[in-house]
Design a protein that fits this description.
By secondary structure, the protein is mostly beta strands. Helices cover 0% and strands 44% of the residues. It has no helices and 10 strands. The strands form 3 sheets. A 4-stranded antiparallel beta sheet has the order 2-3-4-8, with no helix packed on it. A 3-stranded antiparallel beta sheet has the order 1-10-9, with no helix packed on it. The chain is globular, with a radius of gyration of 13 Å. The chain binds FE2/S2 (inorganic) cluster (FES). The site of FE2/S2 (inorganic) cluster (FES) has 9 residues, from loops.
């Protein structure tokens, strides 16, 4: 059953930054685009490489391994149809980032 988890303070993920946080069985990657926070698993849906060094452009992250791009709003892979990245809803509450896992 999904539940909200407090993962870090907003100061820990500055604009255009990211932070890797363990949440239960997941390694969750939290991004700050400067306008919005996103959260996803730290595993590219292509071949499973970490996404933590990927480039973020708006709501799209590009994996550094082979360049696959994923839309962080819905997890859809923009490079290869049928692949998807698990993403999590994010909320900011009183200076803390929460995700629903
Ligand atoms: S593992 Fe990410 S693009 Fe290949």
């Amino acid at each position: 059953m999904a539940q909200w988890e407090k993962v870090c303070a907003v100061e820990e993920v500055p604009a255009n930054g990211r932070k890797l946080v363990p949440v239960g069985v997941f390694n969750v990657l939290v991004f700050n685009s400067g306008k919005r926070y996103f959260a996803c698993v730290n595993e590219c849906p292509h071949l499973g490489m970490p996404l933590e060094t990927g480039e973020l452009a708006g709501h799209v992250v590009r994996c550094n391994s082979h360049g696959y791009q994923m839309d962080l709003t819905n997890g859809r892979c923009l490079t290869e149809a049928g692949l998807s990245l698990p993403v999590f809803p994010v909320e900011v509450r009183e200076g803390w980032i929460w995700i629903k896992v």
